[in-house]
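Same chain as my last thread, 283 residues:
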Amino acid sequence: LWGELKKGQRRRGSVKGITDFGAFIDLGGVDGLLHITDMSWGRVKHPSELFSVGDEIKVKVLKYDREKERISLGLKQVSPNPWEELASKISIGDRVKGKVVSIKDYGAFVELAEGIEGLIHVSEMSWRRDVKHPSKVLNVGDEVECQVLEIDARNKRLSLGLKQLQENPWTALEEKYPSGTTIEGEVKSVTDFGIFVDIGEGIDGLIHVSDISWNKKMAHPSERFKKGEKIKAMVLSIDKETEKFSLGIKQLERDPWETAKTKYRVNEGVEGKVTKVTDFGAF
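reply #2:
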């Protein structure tokens, strides 16, 4: 048999034994190893998923060493590489259906066909920013429809999106709340740099610390606001490209410096209360 072997040759054999890392194939008096990574273009957790002892299969000789009596065999190499055909079958923007086969912290892998898996990154699952883990949206075994975002057949990478098939709430938000609109919402969280407000649209608006008051300084926004509190604010801007919803509280009142221009005149005498004394003067 050794004299008949050639690299790239296709031969029939029977499964002689199964291990965690592969299966031993009897080619007719000589055994070859079919490694688990060469069994299928798709995902294989254990060789026993595909074979049983005694099964007759057709394999390809990948390489062999007569002196060491080692033969490496491949089963997936008998059929065309699906990644090479991928570019002719799907394009960016296409809608595709598949099955969730794995969930990771950063996303979910979806099998579109045998050997073809794409990744839906957690950031592409929902327009809401509070989805921190893919398991909140998908589970292994789910049948999903998604959109092709990026194709890299050479490196076997396929990026998919779930939220792209849903209505973009940022578009509706932009139409519903033009700049200058007064809204009411609930304080969702208070941070060093500002306040996040939930207005019930599935998107939180941010009141930056610089837009809280015209003249009242505070060490931290929590001095004035608490989680769950109802507040009013003005819509400053909505940028759906960067997904930023900016709100302001001080804009609900007139800028006191604008009032000061008409209220006070140079060389006019005024009365006031001393609020602070420093080395260089008094406020």
